[in-house]
Design brief:
Blueprint lengths: L2 E8 L5 H14 L5 E8 L5 E3 L12 H7 L1 E8 L2 E6 L15 E5 L9 H9 L8 H8 L1 H10 L7 E5 L2 H4 L1 H11 L3 E5 L9 E3 L2 H12 L4 E6 L4 E10 L4 E9 L10 H6 L20 E3 L7 H15 L4 E10 L5 E7 L7 H5 L5 H20 L20 H5 L1
Parallel strand pairs: 1-2, 1-6
Antiparallel strand pairs: 2-3, 3-4, 4-5, 7-10, 8-9, 8-10, 11-12, 11-14, 12-13, 14-15
Bound molecules: adenosine-5'-diphosphate and magnesium ion (MG).
Length: 402
């Protein structure tokens, strides 16, 4: 029997449109002989919609008009199954199609990659692809992530973090810490993505301005040493904490006038001619990149090992992309961050590693079902009710109620 796979995409995130592209690539790659694929679009107001119209990217030019023709849905538990239900009943005819066997979230950034939708799937008890709630949340929060990496002995750049409002009470202390690192430094909100709110400061005055900017996006602010000259190298890992493999590497480039890889570089293709991607709306697959870059001896192996260890210590599963920075003078490698739902699901790195996109999607489904099987053997609650013999102490509110 065919498995019903619901692919969730969109979401309230700055990477909403990128997610639409990544999800369409994933839906095309899923083997439609094996799976019934149900697209579930999460609008920016978090309402969910289903319709075959969602399968055509040209329909997204006018989203309100598109949603007007789609069916607003909800996920509910029914007879030990999770079903996609129309919010306004009477609109679906082929009801059997809407049982969800596996959910695949293809949502980047806040509300999708940060544990939010994973928590929703956990509550429903529906198997889902990719990192679980905790790994997704730690992967999204740069502060928690750096602590975990550093404490696990993985190389990270010199850094510190404070709450945004501490700039008012501890400015001298903060500036002293910045001087300890030395300019230039890079300032990042803890939980955004796509370089939003990130900037580089070369002086105290610039630092304060960058910090104030970053504060608009998150309560926690990270300050890091800038690695320069720097090469950005990424590696994807596929699997779970029991068994995982690392892909070939890619080197990514940003426009020469940009000090950091920004949203435009990432999704619209940089100014350099792309070696493997092409420009246009192709998501991460269109970034200016070089797959299998030439690196000094031993560096490719070193980075692949670090990628596997990063994936492991963060408790990841599914397909992730781990981003590295290499100091181009000393060749020292630093782990920058994990992306637990990478743009285009990093399929282009797997294709270059001998794993086709359809095979990658099969693996994601298998990993989701494996995790569910393991979890069903774990103990989460006891079949006793401690409250069955409870009697409220005399004079308490509960006894008065009872
Ligand atoms: N320590 C650093 N030194 C130099 N450049 C950096 C450093 N950290 C980040 N960058 C640049 O900023 C970009 C965005 O930072 P990153 O931490 O990856 O945030 P995001 O989650 O928004 O992708 C990176 O791709 C890189 O180009
Ligand atoms: Mg990044």
């Amino acid at each position: 029997m065919k498995l019903n796979i619901a692919v969730f995409f969109g979401g309230e995130s700055v990477e909403h449109e990128v997610s639409v592209i990544s999800a369409h690539q994933a839906i095309d790659a899923l083997d439609h002989e094996k799976y019934n694929v149900i697209p579930v679009y999460v609008a920016k107001d978090r309402k969910m919609y289903c319709s075959d119209l969602l399968l055509d990217l040209t329909n997204y030019k006018d989203i309100p008009a598109l949603l007007h023709k789609c069916t607003q849905v909800d996920l509910v538990q029914e007879d030990n199954k999770v079903v996609i239900h129309p919010v306004h009943t009477g609109l679906f005819h082929r009801k059997d199609l809407f049982t969800v066997d596996v959910a695949i979230p293809v949502m980047h950034g806040t509300n999708g990659e940060d544990g939010t939708i994973q928590g929703f799937f956990e509550m429903l008890k529906v198997p889902y692809a990719g990192c679980d709630l905790i790994a997704a949340a730690v992967g999204q929060d740069k502060v928690l992530q750096k602590h975990t990496l550093e404490n696990s002995g993985l190389p990270v750049t010199p850094w510190f973090w404070v709450y945004g409002e501490e700039l008012e009470t501890k400015q001298d202390e903060i500036i002293e810490k910045v001087h300890g690192i030395g300019y230039p430094v890079i300032i990042k909100p803890a939980c955004t993505g796509s370089s939003v709110g990130i900037s580089i400061a070369h002086s105290d005055a610039e630092y304060i301005a960058c910090f104030e900017n970053a504060r608009q996006y998150d309560a926690k602010i990270i300050t890091e040493k800038v690695i320069k000259p720097m090469r950005e190298l990424n590696c994807s890992v596929l699997g779970d904490t029991f068994r995982a493999e690392a892909s070939v590497l890619e080197e990514v480039y940003h426009a020469a006038d940009n000090e950091l890889l920004d949203f435009k570089d990432k999704y619209e293709g940089g100014s350099k001619s792309s070696k493997t991607g092409s420009s246009g709306s192709k998501g991460m697959a269109s970034t200016t990149r070089n797959v299998n870059p030439d690196l000094p001896d031993g560096k490719t192996d070193e980075i692949r090992k670090l990628a596997l260890e990063t994936f492991r210590v963060l408790g990841s599963s599914g397909v992730c992309r781990i981003d590295f920075m290499m100091d181009a003078d000393t060749n020292k490698v630093y782990v920058n961050e994990i992306n637990t739902i990478p743009g285009s699901l990093a399929f282009y790195l797997w294709t270059a590693s001998g794993v086709s996109f359809p095979k990658l999607m099969d693996r994601l489904v298998e990993l989701a079902l494996d995790r569910e099987r393991r979890r069903s053997r774990m103990t989460f609650s006891y079949d006793t009710n401690l409250l069955s013999t409870y009697s409220a102490p005399a004079g308490t509110k509960a006894s008065k109620l009872g």
